[in-house]
Motility protein B-like N-terminal domain-containing protein (Ferruginivarius sediminum), 234 residues
Amino acid sequence: MEYLANRRKRGSTSDGNIVAMLSLKLLLLAFFILLSTMSSFEEKRSRAVLESVATTFQGHVAAIRSLDNPTAGLGQLENAPSLVDRLKSLFRQTLPVVEMEESPTGNALRLEVPAESVFVAGSARLAPGRGVLLDRLARILNGEDGPEAAYELQLLHSVRGSGTGVAGELAVRRGGVMARRLGDLGVAEDSLSIALWPRASEGARDGLIAFEILLDVPPRTAGELPAKAPEARP
């Protein structure tokens, strides 16, 4: 009897140990299931956050379709300065203009400036900053996407008498410098002419350079002379 009682006691103890072991394993299994679930949740949440950030900062904006004609496609913008106005503004800002004339139709502009404001005194070397002036002049005439209008640029150097002698030679050299510089800047050869401007006698208008710009001129055939410039006043 005592033997059976001891055996039942050992069996009861063994069963308790098995139950405890199973309970521990179930707890561990539940713990690992919880960790796996949390890991999957965090991964999905992280992916969702990353997708949201990428969508927000990708920079794509839905295009707005409109059948209206763009303003710039209808010609010159309203209140935008004309070609002649831009030319006048350029010279007023950079040179002491002695005389400025504009034709009634607005397609011809004549500006007279002191030669010594364009060149170093007594030489054919451009004065500081005058290369920039010619560059801006060429850019205005040629435009960003091609000339706004067909044009001719005539440069007249005033000289006394027939233009012979040292003063005449200097004027010719200066004209050559300007012609080469403007040609390098894209002014077409058939749109540019250089000439002397003879003066009958000595006066206040000696030592001038006249810029004559003619707009909307018809194309010239080979060998044809430039369009007649406005008459220079004595």
